[in-house]
Design a protein that fits this description.
The protein is α/β, with parallel strands linked by helices and 282 residues long. Helices cover 44% and strands 14% of the residues. The protein contains twelve helices and eight strands. Strands 1-2-3-4-5-6-7-8 form an eight-stranded parallel β-barrel, surrounded by seven helices. The mean pLDDT is 97. The structure holds ligand LLZGTKA7. Its EC number is 4.1.1.23.
Amino acid sequence: MTQDPFGARLRHAMDTRGPLCVGIDPHASLLADWGLNDDVAGLARFTRTVVEALGEQVAVFKPQSAFFERFGSQGLAVLETALAEAREAGALILMDAKRGDIGSTMGAYADTYLNPRSPLFSDAVTLSPYLGFGSLRPALDAAVLNGCGVFVLALTSNPEGQEVQRAVRADGASVAAAMLRHLAAENAGAEPLGSFGAVVGATLGDLSAFDLAVNGPLLAPGIGAQGATPADLPTVFGDAVRNVVPSVSRGVLRHGPDAAALRAAAARFADEVRTAVGTAGA
Ligand SMILES: O=c1ccn([C@@H]2O[C@H](COP(=O)(O)O)[C@@H](O)[C@H]2O)c(=O)[nH]1
């Protein structure tokens, strides 16, 4: 059965649940803080606790693939179970895998994350465009075919990203600006929201030099542990703030393992986002 386009599903989720995305990042230090061992059983317990606590509350879960991959095939099995449970609870899944490669290999990544027959099938995936935006084509095509989304790294939340992303091309545009232009072209005419998003860090301050009007979602990591707050969103995103999906991982996860405390932490961030975004441009 073909599902509605990701952009439409995401807009609906944001309207009904609020836009907050909670990252599932089972850091070894968090496992320890939760009284769990740094092993597959600890990983499984941590992940199940987060999904059970927040699966009916948040719009989007963003599992960070690296924290599962570090346990090999058993870690991926935990991730597969989490995807099924999150889906059952009604949350969208954005796999944070940041894959990038030549087009022929990108086809295999598309099969991994954007093919409904794959055990790691997700609603959307993060991709790196630094082998050229065109190298992402197999994933963009698979996303359209299967009602999925793609989030392309444009302006990442870490300061080191700037040497690549703000480099200026021969045509005078920065690399990031060019990526945003590509995304706007992919999303042209889509309603209510395109399925091709950009990753734009909430840590970056005023971004008015960039045209963030890509008619697609803007994933905003960096809130919480990296120092940004929901109150920063209007300054960073300006008029595009309505399309922002604010993402928090450690800022919520550090409140576990108590489920009520996890829920309360996510609700606090959601409230702060509502306050900040609800008044933006008013
Ligand atoms: O620009 C980016 C892109 C992705 N991330 C990822 O988001 C989370 C952030 O975790 P916090 O604990 O909320 O800092 C993590 O998985 C990163 O890999 C990012 O931070 N910045």
